[in-house]
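Two proteins follow. First one:
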Amino acid sequence: FELGKNPNEVSSEQFTIWREDSHYFIEDRITSVQKRPSTNGTKVNGETITDQIKQELHHDDKIEFARIPECVATFQIK
């Protein structure tokens, strides 16, 4: 991670969040090599989401950015 880099760019490199109906999901980015799950090490509430197809997000879940130990985002539904 480069100091001064936009956090939105960092998150889009590491994981994807999307909405289906009224539910929100997160998954580690897929690598371009044979469409394999990445090993970014993104965590939700302290548990890695690597190798999971998708994980549902809930209000106040904590998303830990891989490779940036002190960076934790709180997911909020407004």
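Second one, unrelated to the first:
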Amino acid sequence: MIGYVTLGTNDLQRAAAFYDALLAEIGARRLMDYGRGYAYGESMDKPTLAIVIPYDTKPATVGNGVMVALGVGSRATVDRMYKKALELGGADEGAPGLREEDFYACYFRDLDGNKLSVFCMG
């Protein structure tokens, strides 16, 4: 159902360096260059994550209650993504751990303050 998610940034090159390194951990790469941003994913026929400088030219802001969750295949990948996000300057919002019976997740913010989660089931 989800085609893509877009996150705003006020510093495209800084955000791109963060997401280039972070998303490489799960095999995602830049698929599109909009000039004002980039779309990341595995292929264009699967959901993508985009970072952009807002088209209205106003500063990008963080939506209260907005979060992007990236599904991965293992707890080890959740752990690796969390570690990488913090190494890249992301902020901790919840270390990896079991949240529900079969829901293992971590939470962090990117360099612009956008909240992300990486999770796996099982």
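SUMMARY FIELD: The helical segments are 12-24, 75-87. The beta strands are 4-8, 29-33, 37-41, 48-52, 68-71, 91-100, 103-109, 115-121.
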